[in-house]
Amino acid sequence: MIRPATPEDAATIAAMTRALSGHVGDLGQHRGSADTLRRDFARFRVLIAENGSTASGMVLFFPYYSSLRGEMGLYVQDLFVGANARGTGLGRALLAAAGRAARDEWDARFLILSAARSNETALAFYDRLGMAPHDDAVQLSLEGAQFTQLTETA
Fold this sequence. Notes:
Layout: E1 2-4, H1 10-24, H2 34-40, E2 45-51, E3 54-66, E4 71-81, H3 90-106, E5 111-113, H4 120-129, H5 144-151
Parallel strand pairs: 4-5
Antiparallel strand pairs: 1-2, 2-3, 3-4
Helix pairs in contact: 1-2
């Protein structure tokens, strides 16, 4: 069963995002927690897959507008499927459910996500879905003191 998460699911979501960080090798950078998820819960959507009363996967996503396309999409921040459910079609089902929810809620017409280059299993999965990398795009980030400095300049 796939269902919308609520703020009461924050600890479960936090555990899965932490497991995902461990899987892709960036656990040392992981700062998210149940508290930060609860604080920001109104700004994103999460769907949780359950097998009985056990969470087996989740997808965290939010609205994404493309001025190039002139339409709304969804950005998938995290897709996690527990080891016991990998290879069962759950990842595809979670992405499909997120796509339907975004289509119904904000008329999404496309999906964007990023994957770690080192996560060959995920890259192969996305390739099987027909997703293609944007070779002309580079993902960049600005955080910490540099972000603060930017936001405090005129």
